[in-house]
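Recall from the previous lesson that a structure prediction takes nothing but the amino acid sequence as input. Here we apply that procedure to Short-subunit dehydrogenase from Subtercola frigoramans. The sequence below is the only information supplied.
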Amino acid sequence: MATKRTVAHARVLITGAASGMGLLYAERAVAEGALDVILWDRNGEKLETIAARLNAEPGRSRVHSYQVDIGDPTSIAENAERVLAEVGGPDVLINNAGIVRGKYFWEHDIDSDIIETMRINALGPMLVTRAFLPRMIAGNRPARIVNIASAAGMISNPRMSVYASSKWAVIGWSDSLRLELVQQGHRHVAVTTVAPSYISTGMFAGARGPVLTPIMTPEYVVDRVWTSMLAGKPLLLMPWSVHIAKVTKGLLPTAIWDQMADRVFHLYTTMEKFTGR
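The prediction returns the following tokens.
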């Protein structure tokens, strides 16, 4: 696998770039001197303002904004064609866009909660990657794909059934894609799957971290993701307690794990006061 030290002179595409961690990734790309920084978000007006500000930054980066609904396959396809024609294929793709619904499963609306969550969180990253991956493979130069999943995709939690299922899907697809690229000799395209616990972006407002699992700052997470992406690290779990929980859950009988997760780590009550953005 070819290594990357920075994204200087590279094309970087970020979904969900109008706020939160997506915006931080964009700012990081500009700071490192990326040739082109391509911003995707469904909030087109806000994205244009951000692009104008970043284009005014000293340096060589050209920042492009595209209003894209990651939950709409047609929007993805049409805008991917525009990017390929107007800018060129990205060398770095960060599938960051996502939504969360913090409810019991039977409280979810079918269209606006279940289908929308699966479209944006699970299907969206697949379709975006499918649109650009052939160009990445053919480019035969170091390329990176970052798929933002969640610790919820590995460790179940009440009031997160649909969100967790979407992130389980991302983890399974993302790591399978990594293996396929390696198996077929496309080692220059590295896939990093990211599974963090709660981050203080506002997306999980009201949620509290389990015992030994502090809520992380977006700046800290972006820094860890960026370093892992450049190194081509296959899987990034954050914080360290997610590693412990993953292993412990795999070793213990389900009934014992449930008691430990609930009574010791208070994992199963973390979403009780969730409000979201």
